[in-house]
Amino acid sequence: MASVETDVFESRLADGTEIDDLVTEEKGISRRIYGDPEIFALEQERIFRRAWVFLAHETEFQRPGDTITRNLAGEPVVLIMGDDGVIRAFLNSCRHRGMRVCRADRDNLKFMRCVYHGWAYNRDGTLRAAFAEQLYEPERLRKEELGLIPVTQVDSYAGFIFGCWDPETPPLDEYLGDMRFYLDLIVNRTDDGCEVVGVPHVWEARCNWKFATDNFTGDNFHLYTAHGSMVELGMLPPDPMSLSYGYMITAEGGHVLHIVPGPPGFEYLGMPKEMIPEFKRNLSPAQQAVMERSTFTVGSIFPNFSYLHVFVPKEQGAPPCSFLSFRMWEPLAFNRTRIHSYLIVDKSAPADFRTETAQAYVRTFGPSGLFEQDDMENWEDCTLVNSGQIAQRYHLHHGMRIGLPPDPDFPGPGKAYQGSYGEQTQLDFYAEWERWMTAPRPVGARKEA
Amino acid sequence: MTVEATAREPVVFGFGTPEYAEITDWVTREVHLLDEARFDEWYEQLHPSLTYSMPVRLSLMPKDGFGFRDDTDYYLDDYTSIRTRLNRLKTEMAWAEQPGSRTRHLVTNLLVEGAGDDEYRVRGQFLVTRARADHLPDIFSGVREDLLVRGGGGLLLRQRRVLLDQSVLKSFNLSILF
Question: Is residue B58 part of a domain?
Answer without folding.
Answer: yes
